[in-house]
């Protein structure tokens, strides 16, 4: 069973930066859409950014220009660089892997808390 382990969350002031990391237990990045999602208290989980096999990226409008998703296949790691953080970015951030070849499956990490104070 593939496991995803996130790290890098924490508390920062508005305008600060954090980098989240998601390490996969196996080499899966080239056959999965890797994504970062977040869930704020009382709200639904939402897509923040994802990266497709081959490197195409996609971002939520609310984070465009501030967040960058990247991957290092050799390290089985996906990153989310978050700059110019805002209090509205406060949430639990989850790593997600969606396998694009058969058999299809989906994995989630345990989540990491990001808190941005004003």
Describe the structure.
- The protein has 118 residues and is an all-beta fold.
- It is 0% helix and 53% strand.
- The strands form two sheets. Strands 2, 4, 5, 6, 9, 10 and 11 form a seven-stranded mixed β-sheet that branches. Strands 1-3-8-7 form a four-stranded antiparallel β-sheet, with no helix packed on it.
- The model has no long low-confidence stretch (mean pLDDT 96).
SSE blueprint:
Blueprint: E1 4-7, E2 10-13, E3 18-24, E4 32-39, E5 46-51, E6 57-59, E7 67-72, E8 77-82, E9 91-99, E10 106-108, E11 112-117
Parallel strand pairs: 2-11
Antiparallel strand pairs: 1-3, 3-8, 4-5, 4-9, 5-6, 7-8, 9-10, 9-11
Core attributes:
118 residues, mainly beta, seven-stranded mixed beta sheet, four-stranded antiparallel beta sheet, 11 strands
Which sheet architecture does the biggest sheet show? 7 strands, mixed
Give the rounded overall mean pLDDT.
Answer: 96
Distance between the termini: 40 Å
Total helical elements: 0
Radius of gyration: 14 Å
Instruction: Outline the low-pLDDT stretches.
Output: none
The residue fraction in helices comes out at under 10%
| Dominant shape | globular
Write down the secondary-structure element order. EEEEEEEEEEE
β-strand amount:
over 45%
Number of strands: 11
